Amino acid sequence: MSKVNEYNPSMLRGLWALTVRELKKWLKDPVMVLMLVLQPLIWMGLLGKSININAIFSSKSLVNLEIPDIQVPGSLLNPPVNGVLIIPGAFITQQLQQMFSTIGTKVMQDTFGVIDYFSYMAIGMVSMIVMTTTMFTGMSIVWDRRLGFLDKVLSTPVPRGAIIFAKVLNATLRAIFQATVILALAYLLGLQLSSNFTLLNLLGVYAAIFLLGIGLSSVFIAFSLRSTRMERPMQIISLITMPLMFASNTFFPISLMPYWIQVVAKVNPLTYLTDAVRQLTIMPLDLSTLMFDFICLGIFASILATIGIMLSWRYLTK
Amino acid sequence: MSEEVIKAEGLTKIFNKSLVAVDHVNFSVKSGEIFGFLGPNGAGKTTTINMLTTVLKPTEGFAYVLGYDIVKQANNVRKVIGVVPQEYTADEDLTGYENVMLCADLYGIPRDIAKKRALELMELVELTQFKDKRVETYSGGMRRRLELACGLINRPKVLFLDEPTLGLDVQTRAATWSYIRKLKEEYGMTLFMTTHYLEEADILCDRIAIIDHGKIVAIGAPDELKDSLGGDIITISIKENADISELIRSVEHVKDVKNENGSYRIKVESGEVTAPLIIEALRKKGYTVIKLSLTEPTLNEVYLEYTGRAIRDIEESKEAVRMQRIAIRRARAE
To answer: Which residues of chain B have a CB within 8 Å of the CB of A21?
Structure first.
């Protein structure tokens, strides 16, 4: 019998080749990149700026407060004096406004962990883009299958794992890129970084995104592999995006939510990504909280990736 | 040389436990030949190719490519085969050259060797001047050639071609055939191809298997298959109004005569030998021949004989074929 071809494709080579293919495709379609950034940008720019929670808790919300002059009978004072003490309403208003501002800042700080709502929700948008990017990228395997590319790749000796990992890696790299764009835009729009933010923190942000990206994209690749039509994963994505976003700390702290939503939010991986990124960027870093977030993200990533990769593997080798 | 390059034994694929796409097929392909699988869409050709190229696992049966088991030694099979799929699988957003190089990466061919081979192959399929153009600008014929180049990057010993000229116009089809022949000679490969074009099977293949409803109904060289029908057909008409069936039947070498409204359809072994004998016999009895034609059986008649359908009828039932394809795709997705 003839001898086997002398070359053996390595996992790494195949992985690299397939990932580069996707990245090249992606970069050649800048409109798509723009569209994906645009959505969270609109959310961030419009919702983050228009729902101006800061203003509610500042003196601005007491601007129209009109307090009449108050007359205090002198006998009530200590020591009592004759006549009547008149406190001008304007003075009270001013005092109240100042106090309210202080209280408001305290409320913001206690509720959101930061005094600026825009910063709070901008980081939520980072999570949102990580979620949508990884999900949509996973779907590209539907196209590969429909166009026959997947069958062609399967007929080559490239390790089956490389085919799946290339998709996962590609999705995660894209998510990291998009998240960076969102962070940069948020900064330009007024995101207030915490005083101890360094470039090292950025690496931490990437690590967190990487974990969730791997988990979510694995599941979506497995799911997409099993659906012949593009519509099905699309519907699922649009169906679950909203609930996942609202039943998490993306827009609002979960501690103030009704109990049943809290339960959902606590098993929602988005919560931990958002919190980890907030810890690393806008909040005074609390190491134990950050550790906890990372542990949760790690657990989610390993469970989701195991399920996803096992399902894909079974499909590709059937 | 009659080494068996591909051997299938009772190869079967059942989708969803009920849809039998390939039904216990047996065949072998000899070294250096072009072997064609001829059959209507949905007959099980692509499913067979997908099993032989290790994309699908058979439900039952075995197949060997160059002696390697397609299930147990799938990875060895993958290294020695090349595949040119039915679809245009090249990436539209990448250039032709980038596509060929991607294939090289999938086979793990060292970069420097891959570069040399890629340029050589682009030259062979005459795409050198378009190699840095995006594939989306390529015509159908160019894409098909690019697929050929990709399928050859690992210098395969066996090349699988799934409907290599599907959807191409007549000229491009002829050009593609000449490429396939050229490639075969250049690399001394064994070719396994599927087609539903009779002409293509006739011109290109050394041997063909006719497949229908997942079963092989006939197998052999195109000429053998035609001969198996019993030679040529002579059609004859005479001026006189008389039944000459018995007279013709008495002529030597005549196998069968049918009177079709005064026109006689005569099955003979060899038209050239028997036609003069028939004319002579008729002349002796005083009949005047006014019309005579001689036709060699085409693959279409072979096809008709074995599948009970002309290929034309099948083309007309495209809707049914489409439905079956959808059913198979769905089944595969489960």
So the answer is: 91, 94, 102
Q: Are residues B53 and B17 in the same domain?
A: yes
Q: Average pLDDT, whole number, for chain B? A: 85
Kindly list the residues from chain B whose CB atom is less than 8 angstroms away from the CB atom of residue A7. 79, 107-110, 154
- Shared domain for B10 and B155, answered yes or no, is yes
Give the separation between CA B99 and CA B121, rounded to whole angstroms: 12
The range of the structural domain enclosing residue B169 comes to 4-226+304-333
Q: Are residues B250 and B147 in the same domain?
A: no
ipTM of the complex: 0.78
Does residue B95 sit in the same domain as residue B132?
Answer: yes
A314 touches chain B (CB under 8 A): no
User: Which residue in B has a C-alpha nearest to residue A18's C-alpha?
Assistant: B102
Q: What digits encode the pLDDT tens for the residues B209-267? A: 999 889 998 999 988 888 777 678 888 888 888 788 888 888 877 877 877 777 887 88
pLDDT of B50 over the 80 cut: yes
Amino acid type, B159: L
What is residue A191's three-state secondary structure?
A: coil
How near does any CA of chain A get to the CA of B329, in Å? 7
Domain match, B253 and B160 both: no
**Chain B residue closest in CA terms to A223:** B333
Note whether B253 and B317 are same-domain residues.
Answer: no
B276 vs chain A: nearest CA distance in angstroms? Answer: 53
CB-closest option in A2, A25, A29 to B80: A2
pLDDT in tens, B266-281: 888 778 888 888 888 8
Per-residue pLDDT tens for A175-213? 999 899 899 999 998 888 988 888 899 999 999 999 999
Window 138-197 of B, Cβ < 8 Å to A: 150, 154-155, 157, 160
* Residues B83, B19 share a domain: yes
Asked if residue B318 has pLDDT above 70, the reply is: no
CATH of the domain at B112: 3.40.50.300
Cβ neighbors of B240 (< 8 A, separation 6 or more) are B287, B288
Q: Please check whether residues B218 and B253 belong to one and the same domain.
A: no
**How many domains is chain B built from?**
2
Does the CB of A5 have a partner CB in chain B at under 8 Å? Answer: yes
CB distance from A64 to chain B under 8 Å?
Answer: no
What pLDDT band is residue B172 in, cutting at 50, 70 and 90? confident
Domain containing B236 — which CATH number?
Answer: 3.30.70.100
Angle (CA) B51-B56-B57 rounded to 5° is: 85
Note the pLDDT of residue B308.
66
How distant is the Cα of A152 from the closest Cα of chain B, in angstroms? Answer: 7
Residue-wise pLDDT tens digits, B27-48 = 999 998 999 999 887 788 999 9
Provide Rg for chain B, Cα atoms. 24
> Would residue B18 be called left, alpha or beta, if left means φ above 0 and alpha means ψ between -120 and 50 degrees?
alpha
Residue A71: helix, strand or coil by DSSP? strand
Interchain CB contact of A25 with B (< 8 Å)? yes
The whole-angstrom distance between A313's CA and the closest CA on chain B is 13
Q: How many beta-carbon pairs under 8 angstroms link A with B?
A: 100
Contact B79 A227 (CB under 8 A): no
Using the beta-carbon criterion (under 8 Å), do B83 and A152 form an inter-chain contact?
yes
CB contact under 8 A, A148 and B110: no
